[in-house]
């Protein structure tokens, strides 16, 4: 897998959130034109994008639509069909959650322990983006 695409309204806030999570900003730019329109099925699309990459290679492409405006949909519960979340392995889940809070992160419920293998939680980031954190134990 190369990357996961996420549409946001505040590109700078989303970049800051994922950089704090440990991803590296590879670059930013703008895309528009017939090739974009025909790829995504929207006429007159204009996007600002930021490409980030996690250690190990999987990337996240953040897109902010200048035209047409992005549709705002309230984030659904974790059992909603469609894209659910991306999971990130972290060394210290409590420290990671604390560092992400100033960037808009909120725990969905609480940090839990799964057997003797992991500590896990779901976190909502900027604009309701859902991620999961996993801290290996032992």
What report would you give on this structure?
By secondary structure, the protein is of the alpha+beta class. It has two domains: 3-67, 2,3-Dihydroxybiphenyl 1,2-Dioxygenase, domain 1 (Roll), CATH 3.10.180; 86-136, Roll (2,3-Dihydroxybiphenyl 1,2-Dioxygenase, domain 1), CATH 3.10.180.10. Helix content is 19%, strand content 39%. The protein has three helices and nine strands. The strands form two sheets. Strands 5, 6, 7, 8 and 9 form a five-stranded mixed β-sheet that branches. Strands 1-4-3-2 form a four-stranded mixed β-sheet, with helices on both faces. A hairpin with a 3-residue loop joins strand 7 (112-114) and strand 8.
Question: What's this, in brief?
Answer:
This protein has 138 residues and is of the alpha+beta class. It has helices at 11-21, 34-40, 93-100; strands at 3-7, 24-32, 46-53, 59-67, 86-89, 106-107, 112-114, 118-124, 130-136.
What is the count of helical runs?
3
Write the CATH homologous superfamily of the largest domain.
Answer: 2,3-Dihydroxybiphenyl 1,2-Dioxygenase, domain 1
User: How can the largest sheet be summarized?
Assistant: 5 strands, mixed
Mean pLDDT score: 91
Rounded to the nearest angstrom, the distance between the terminal CA atoms is: 28 Å
- The string of secondary-structure elements, in order, is EHEHEEEHEEEE
Could you list the spans in which at least 5 consecutive residues all have pLDDT below 50?
A: none
Total number of distinct structural domains: 2
Look up the CATH topology of the largest domain: 2,3-Dihydroxybiphenyl 1,2-Dioxygenase, domain 1
Described by the principal axes of the CA atoms, the overall outline is elongated
Structural class: alpha+beta
CATH architecture identity of the largest domain: Roll
CATH class of the largest domain: Alpha Beta
Please provide the count of β strands.
Answer: 9
- Beta-strand content: 35-45%
What is the helix content? 10-25%
Radius of gyration: 16 Å
């Amino acid at each position: 897998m190369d990357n996961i695409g996420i549409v946001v309204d505040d590109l700078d806030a989303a970049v800051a959130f994922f950089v704090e999570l440990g991803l590296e900003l590879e670059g930013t730019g703008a895309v528009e034109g017939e090739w974009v329109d025909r790829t995504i099925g929207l006429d007159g699309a204009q996007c600002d994008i930021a490409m980030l990459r996690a250690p190990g290679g999987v990337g996240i492409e953040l897109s902010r639509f200048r035209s047409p405006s992005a549709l705002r949909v309230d984030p659904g519960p974790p059992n909603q069909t469609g894209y659910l979340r991306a999971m990130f392995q972290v060394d210290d889940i409590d420290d990671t959650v604390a560092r992400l809070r100033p960037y808009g992160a909120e725990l969905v419920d609480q940090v839990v322990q799964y057997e003797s293998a992991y500590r896990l939680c779901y976190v909502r980031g900027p604009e309701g983006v859902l991620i999961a954190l996993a801290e290996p134990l032992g």
